[in-house]
Amino acid sequence: xxxxxxxxxxxxxxxxxxxxxxxxxKRSLFSKKRIESSIAFLIxxxxxxxxxxxRVGEMTTSEVISWSAVEFxxxxxxxxxxxxxxxxxxxxxxxxxxxxxxxIR
Length: 105
Fold this sequence. Notes:
Elements: H1 9-22, H2 32-55, H3 61-104
Helix pairs in contact: 2-3
């Protein structure tokens, strides 16, 4: 029996099906909003890293500090949005649980 790799053909097909389900009416395990914000975040990171690589020799200390501050602000904002989404999802789930339990009684 051959080695089994995580990125085997079955897993690649599964990921493609999930992405297709994201943009259709089917239920998906991925969050469309989170995928799109992650793509935007990665594009912004690549742009900032490219800028840093191109200008690192001529940047002053204050520019490096400003660049770092922007990086931390973006990371903090992203984490904050994820935590808000998790809180909202748990409140909705708790509300649904309460409604279901009151209907059973």
